[in-house]
TrEMBL record:
This is STAS domain-containing protein. InterPro entries: STAS_dom_sf (IPR036513). It comes from the Bacteria.
Length: 111
């Protein structure tokens, strides 16, 4: 069983980061009650990730480890993949999306 969070509609531009943070908040709120090894955050509609959201994602990862769970980012945009690579979040969270996986594993990614 996998716990997955996603946005149901494309948010207004000013609310994009706020909605990503809401996904993280929802996962953080429910993390102790979940009987699943993975917490999947669907980022298909996320176009912006602030430093505050990165901090919250790291905190979510630390909390998930306490419950022997891992955080998975799915359907990450090119922008989100770049942020994940530049901040080295790929060392603590998994990224699952065919295009993102291909980009991140290519020899030219990040060059």
């Amino acid at each position: 069983m996998v716990f997955s969070l996603s946005l149901s509609h494309k948010p207004a531009v000013s609310a994009i980061d706020e909605t990503f943070e809401r996904l993280i908040d929802e996962a953080q709120y429910r993390i102790g009650d979940l009987d699943t090894p993975e917490i999947v955050i669907d980022c298909s509609l996320v176009q912006w990730i602030s430093s505050h959201a990165i901090d919250r994602l790291i905190r979510l990862h630390l909390e998930a480890r306490r419950f022997e769970q891992c955080v998975v980012i799915s359907n990450a945009s090119d922008f989100a993949c770049d942020v994940i690579n530049l901040t080295r979040l790929d060392r603590i969270v998994s990224v699952r999306f065919d295009a993102a996986h291909e980009r991140m594993s290519s020899p030219h990614f990040g060059s």
